[in-house]
Specification:
Cytochrome p450, endoplasmic reticulum, 516 residues, monooxygenase, single chain, Cytochrome P450, Cyt_P450_sf, oxidoreductase, binds protoporphyrin IX containing FE, globular
């Protein structure tokens, strides 16, 4: 049969044109509403560098925040999806706190069949299911339930010091990669506080547990790509059967947690840890709210227990290891601040019988100031994405009214707001004094949101701060943290990182202090 080249050519051109039309048909959306936006390009919209793996999500969103200087919000396109990008801290508070009913869902998606564990993480749960899950878990994170965990954290801190006394000097002149070190610490703290088991990842950095925790949300180009596709187009994610958690990691954690639960149930073992609360929740269907409100009974399965342990393992290790390693980095770069912190910590510890723990940590205001500034300059979660759940009227800067339609993604850059000179003077400078109780500027405090804002604010904030403060305090009290020839200066963000990470690693030296 003779090939009709004209017809074939015409069909190819038509198919290409239809594809181009399909990918770009939404690109006039913001212009039509009079919302300022950047010209998008097929097929990536305004996120070409993110999809090609040249920039991390944190940097991509921060860059857009900077580009729209003077605008309270703008429109962006990710692939074909039109999203409203909010740049104004007051407006964000209005939308996410006062008008929460219009934005109660996060703009994310995981397929429940492919990722049953992630699908139960409160971060991914939507609507009334989220409300139920949040109220079921909130009692596990009260201050009174956190206090006994300081004793467990201190045990891990002692191991950290012991291990570092051996590894630190051996690793010179390059020093140690601080994120991995902090990840070993946070993994051991979380294993101890959440599961009541000794993680031993500090003693054995190549342990299976350390590997599994790192891979729960492996910072790779493929992970970022899968997340970007799933968040932008759930239908495409379903068709491609996208799974975010690797299958071997899923199988490992499921077996590990259910076996531990069975041991507790059979042996009637009682411990004061998070898993015990979940076992109680599974048995009774509710947790004691310590007088905080009425209790509602619900079914809590083995998969629910596994999912909540993984939520703790994932959210409790990666973000906190990031915060802790950036704190050590800034302290290495600012020896004067490190010295002052050490003096303040010594005073607080002396005041409490030489014990590093709940009381001395809460006593040390300067530690709180340093950490607050670290979380401002280096928020581990650089941007957030919400979904409009009820039509929301707005007005452009030029006075034109429009409505944010249900289903529209509403995004904002925490990193961008935290470095916006409207809210923080000399925003790129590391200066803990901003958070001194006498200096706190109310305008800055409105814009400070490392743990998010509103009813969906981070559930583990108390635990996170306790864990990072204990880790930083024990290191500063026992070592001089310093830069080495391999320390990244200036620091470049790893384009594959989801939570902020330094490209090439965060190399730092730890010189043991002589205690007289
Ligand atoms: C420095 C460490 C951490 C940072 C910076 C951080 C930050 C955040 C942020 C920005 C959000 C989104 C809040 C929003 O949507 O407004 C969030 C949510 C969440 N975080 Fe954290 N987090 C940290 C540690 C932890 C820890 C240790 C846990 C658990 C033990 C945890 C559990 C959660 C959960 C369950 C949510 C979802 C809450 C919901 O949607 O209801 N986080 N976190």
């Amino acid at each position: 049969m003779a090939v009709d080249w004209y017809t074939t050519g015409a069909l190819v051109v038509l198919a290409a044109w239809l594809l181009w039309k399909y990918l770009s048909w939404n690109y006039g959306y913001w212009q039509r509403l009079g919302v300022p936006c950047i010209e998008p390009s097929v097929p990536f919209g305004n996120f070409k560098d993110l999809f090609l793996g040249n920039k991390s999500p944190l940097e991509s969103f921060e860059e857009i925040h900077r580009r729209f200087d003077g605008e309270p919000f703008c429109g962006v396109y990710r692939l074909r999806q039109a999203a409203l990008f909010v740049r104004d801290a007051e407006l964000l508070r209005q939308m996410m706190i006062s008008d929460f009913a219009s934005f109660h869902d996060n703009n994310n998606y995981v397929n429940e069949d492919q990722d049953p564990i992630f699908a139960r993480n409160p971060f991914f749960v939507k609507g009334t299911r989220w409300k139920k899950s949040r109220s079921r878990l909130t009692p596990s994170f009260t201050a009174s339930r956190m206090k006994p965990m300081f004793v467990l954290m201190k045990e891990v801190c002692d191991t950290l010091v012991r291990v570092l006394e051996q590894e630190g000097p051996e690793a010179m002149p390059d020093g140690l990669e601080a994120w991995r070190l902090c990840m070993r610490y946070t993994t051991d703290v979380v294993s101890s506080c959440a599961l009541g088991v000794t993680g031993r990842t500090l003693e054995d950095k190549d342990s299976v547990l350390a590997d599994m925790c790192r891979r729960l949300l492996a910072p790779t180009f493929m992970t970022n790509l899968k997340i970007a596709v799933a968040f932008t187009s759930p239908t495409l994610a379903d068709v491609l059967r996208i799974r975010i958690m690797p299958l071997d990691v899923h199988n490992f954690v499921y077996k590990w947690v259910t076996e531990t639960v069975a041991q507790r149930e059979q042996g009637n073992v009682q411990r004061k840890d998070y898993l015990q609360l979940l076992v109680e929740l599974k048995a009774r269907g509710y947790l004691d709210t310590e007088g905080q409100g009425p209790v509602e009974k619900s079914t809590f399965t083995d998969m629910d227990v596994v999912a909540q342990v993984v939520t703790f393992m994932l959210d409790g290790t990666h973000t906190t290891a990031t915060a802790m390693s950036f704190a050590l980095y800034e302290l290495a770069l600012h020896p004067d601040i490190q010295h002052r912190l050490r003096e303040n910590l010594r005073e607080a510890v002396d005041k409490h019988g030489g014990q590093l723990g709940y009381d001395s940590i809460n006593e040390c205001t300067y530690l709180d100031m340093v950490l607050s500034e670290v979380l401002r300059l280096h928020p581990p979660i650089g941007h957030l994405e919400k979904k409009c759940t009820a039509a929301y009227p707005m007005t452009t800067a030029s006075g034109r009214a429009f409505t944010v339609q249900p289903g529209t993604a509403v995004v904002f850059s925490i990193a961008g707001i935290h470095r916006d000179p409207r809210y923080f003077r000399n925003p790129d400078v590391f200066d803990p004094e901003r958070f001194s109780p006498d200096n706190k500027d109310p305008t800055s405090m409105v814009a400070y949101m490392p743990f998010g804002l509103g009813a969906r604010t981070c559930l583990g904030q108390r635990f996170a701060l306790s864990q990072v403060k204990m880790g930083v305090a024990c290191l500063v009290l026992n070592f001089r943290v310093c830069t080495t020839p391999r320390t990244p200066m200036p620091l470049e963000v790893d384009p594959n990182s989801f939570a902020k990470a330094a490209k090439g690693g965060m190399w730092l030296g730890f010189q043991p202090l002589v205690h007289l």
